Amino acid sequence: MRVKAVISYDGAAFYGFQAQSTTPKTVSGALTRAAEKLGIDSAIVGSGRTDRGVHATGQVIHFDLPSHWQNSLEKLKTVYNRLLSPHIQIKTITPVRDTFHARFDAKRRIYRYVFKSTPPTPFENLYACHLHHSDPEKLKEALKLFEGTHNFCYFHKKGSDPGSTVRTIFRTDVKNFRRYIMLYIEANGFLRSQVRMIVAACMNYMHNNITLQQIDEQLAGKTMHTTHLAPPQGLYLARVIY
Fold this sequence. Notes:
Strand content: 25-35%
Largest sheet: 10 strands, mixed
Distance between the termini: 19 Å
Number of strands: 10
Radius of gyration: 19 Å
Structural class: alpha+beta
Order of helices and strands: EHEEHEEEHEEEHHE
């Protein structure tokens, strides 16, 4: 039986989501090792990869269960969580059709980026980015440029073949909560480090290091004006919509 699980994790403890041959410290690797102890030998398939240091509050995975777990999903969640490090939590496990695919069936993904207008405390350093001289309205103005369908060839990190670099961003938003500023980007999919490049461009505009016209030119694939990445610690995969 195939199941879908919604998980959260502290990305600061891992070298990214995807399993790697050079280190066991990946989210996928930790999930797989714990599953094997439960007699589950299915591959763990995620809705997408997150970079080293990037967190998740709503990552989705799927895997196939052997018969002895198929009627005990709540018990499975409890025992699975016990075997995982404190940096990963399985929030829900639900049955799905046998053809369900966490990555290919996803319709939309929402990322959240967390800024703090005052210096983060020692307990927040890995979970929020300090934003000097914040101007939420300028951030919102720059983010709006990215809405719609665009070829993001100049807004992703090279190193792997993504196939098409065309993506559709359905919604962007900026919200204030006391000393925190949260950016939201909802799209049908994201390229490698795309969100961090978009956020960095918006930060550069807010600090008057780049103009809206220059962002527009880069978005149109004409000229590369910035290659900066926003720090990973402020970024969260918030939700995957099916």
